[in-house]
Amino acid sequence: MSVPGYAELQVTSQFSFLRGASSAEELFATAATMGIKTLAVTDRNTLAGIVRAHEAAKAAGIRLVVGCRLDLTCGMAALVYPMDRAAYARICRLLTFGKSRAGKGSCHLDWADLALHAEGLIAVLIPDQADETCGLHLRRLRETFGDRAYLALTLRRRPNDQLRLHHLARLAARMGVATVVTNDVLYHEPTRRMLQDVVTAIRHNLTIDELGFRRERHADRYLKSPEEMHRLFSRYPEALARTAEITARCRFSLDELRYQYPEERDDPALTPQQTLAQLTWQGAAKRIQKASPRTSGPA
Question: What is the arithmetic mean of pLDDT over 129-157?
Answer without folding.
Answer: 95
